[in-house]
Amino acid sequence: MIVSVLIAAFNEAQSVGRTVTSVRTALTTASIEHEIIVIDDGSADGTAAEAESAGAIVLSHPLNRGYGRALKSGLQRAAASLVAIIDADGSYPADALPGLIARTTAFDMVVGARQGAHYRGSRAKWFGRLALERMVLFVTGVRVPDVNSGLRVFRKKIALDHIDQIGNGFSFTTTLTLAMLLEGHFVDYVPVPYHARVGTSKVRFRRDVLRTVQILTNAVLAYNPVKLFLLLAYVAAAGLLVGLLIDWFVARAVHAGLILVLGVGSVLLMFGLGLLGEALRRLR
In angstroms, rounded to a whole number, what is the distance separating the alpha carbons of residues 21 and 54? Predict the structure, then answer.
């Protein structure tokens, strides 16, 4: 078994060399043949030199184009049919890789599901992750413990088949997970410890939350539009009921007819759009 390990790095000179060394040690100890590719995404701090001195193959972007774009460059260069990714910042345990790789005999993708205080973070982040978990469950019908973990092993061909749909930013892992689940591939999750990163995080929580909501909406529109519009129809029906109750108690049902017309029309419109979306999906 040969594995290509991809490490996307932007200004990670403090930790990328140690990450490369720890990955090599873990895979060599497990007698797994491998190559390690570091994609330097426009760094200005010597990241490429540190990665090269540690023995990695280095691909360099002239400008910073994002985590996902870096991994796409690595995918296109990878020699093996099995690909692993790990962050350059020291937050993921490289010694978990052999265990994840071993499980790919039965699964198309195996993900290291993060555990511990450093993963949970603040209450706001914990709530955001819980909301994301519920949204992914709604879109895919599958409970996913860690949708955007940066430690995973997967089949290169499946990722390349979706390379145009997979995000160029930190949404790379989210969109890859959704594509795998929505197309019926087998995905496994293995708990791994998550450590404090070296250096400063490049993630922007609010921006990435909005981007993730957009990704989930695009996914449900592409794969199951009826589900989304049925949800909107339920919301419209609930709005109709609330409107009628308010009108009854405040205005003694003076506007009941207008509310019924608008409410029922909204419900039928949402349901119709769902059926149209499903028809277009089947044609596509």
Answer: 6
